[in-house]
Amino acid sequence: MHRLTLAQIARGLAAKDFSSVELTEALLTRIGALDPQLNSFITVTADQARAQAQAADARRAAGESGALLGAPIAHKDLFCTKGVRTSCASKILDNFVAPYDATVVEKLAAAGCVSLGKLNMDEFAMGSANESSHYGPVKNPWNLECVPGGSSGGSAAAVAARLIPAATGTDTGGSIRQPAALTNLTGIKPTYGRVSRWGMIAYASSLDQGGPLARSAEDCALLLGAMAGFDPKDSTCVDQPVDDYLAALNRPLAGLRIGLPREYFGAGLDPRLSDAVMACVEELKKLGATIKEIGLPNMQHAIPAYYVIAPAEASSNLSRFDGVRFGYRCENPQNLEDLYKRSRGEGFGAEVKRRIMVGTYALSAGYYDAYYLKAQKIRRLIRSDFIAAFQEVDLILGPTTPNPAWKLGEKSSDPVAAYLEDIYTITANLAGIPGLSMPAGFVDGLPVGVQLLAPYFQEGRLLNVAHQYQQATDWHQRAPEGF
Ligand code: GLN
Prior knowledge:
Blueprint (H helix, E strand, L loop, with lengths): L5 H9 L5 H19 L2 E4 L1 H16 L10 E5 L26 H8 L3 E6 L33 H8 L5 E5 L6 H6 L3 E4 L20 E5 L2 H11 L17 H4 L8 E5 L9 H16 L3 E5 L7 H16 L18 H12 L2 H14 L4 H25 L2 E5 L15 H6 L5 H6 L3 E9 L2 E8 L5 H14 L11
Parallel strand pairs: 2-3, 7-8, 7-9
Antiparallel strand pairs: 1-3, 4-6, 5-6, 5-10, 9-11, 10-11
Helix pairs in contact: 2-3, 7-16, 10-12, 10-13
The structure holds glutamine.
């Protein structure tokens, strides 16, 4: 049963081949047996999952028929879940039990999804390797010595290892697409404002966006359809109807104009990944797409701009963790100042502290104009590059990452080396456009991802192209050995 996709599960549940309770039990057993190798879960909510599965089965018996009714999933541990620890993979929130559900959690529960627990991640979603978690690193099921990517590394590893069919993730600079690429999954970062951020613990509020990781574009369409939509509780959530993503899947690709940015194929890209991406392009041509070279001239400035803006917002967002209101508090504080200093000093990990310091510096009087304001100007130029490119093409295609998954520890002593892995993904967050990563081959037994980028609110186009590609290829169906 663990091999089934969400779409297959929906058919199986509708045909009464199995119940949600049976499926949930089977997956809980699998998580118990296999997750010790991966460390993808921070918390398994077995009792709650059983109760939700029973409720879903009862709703079906009473005549309800939603595609996700009874479908098992799990949430990245930065989505607040009522009554369940929401740790953000940080010591500072190790004891935090959220008093409410995030909108995404609420919407998926209303659709009938059964949550099996909370997934490991980089601390406060800061990272590309899932090595900065307070609960230890996550392993890549394709090679247990390699990282699964980050920051949604637990989501990626659990879905790739068939412990759950799909999961939620968040993407501030690539954290859905990059781990999807490194573990052979399909993951989509929606347009900024498409999915509510309410109850999603903030890293960099102007860049964060939630989305699904799954084993096919069809499954992402199912989940995104349930996650997306206006939420009056999030003032940046856009009041615009949600497209019918499932209906979009079947459009033929004839006439689709795809742009290949020359900046995405330059130095720094592993040539073997470049070959896999070009093979994907050939396949899409066979499906009717036309190809054009385009330019995104400001891409070279994206990493420095992102690593000013994201830490600046993080330094402000994370000021709420002070040891007073919730979360970790140091022992025997001598006075208020000592309480703040030691609670934060002991509660945050090294990468989070690094970002807070960089961000605070960039925002400080005297440096604000030189760093933060400059970065915002670059951000606008990057957005303009995309708007200009989308005058000429319908879709932009390139590699998701410059390299396949690397060995655990290999880049952990060199933060800049890890930051450079985000080169192809962070531009979409800076511009706010949607992006998707899909499986497109293997290098040394490790998955390669292709990234598709589309204009604002064209998630349907991304899912459509990925689905058509997945009808013609079987990369996405390959499973890691031993799982
Ligand atoms: N790797 C990037 C960072 O560390 C992106 C993380 C994310 O998207 N949450 O900031």
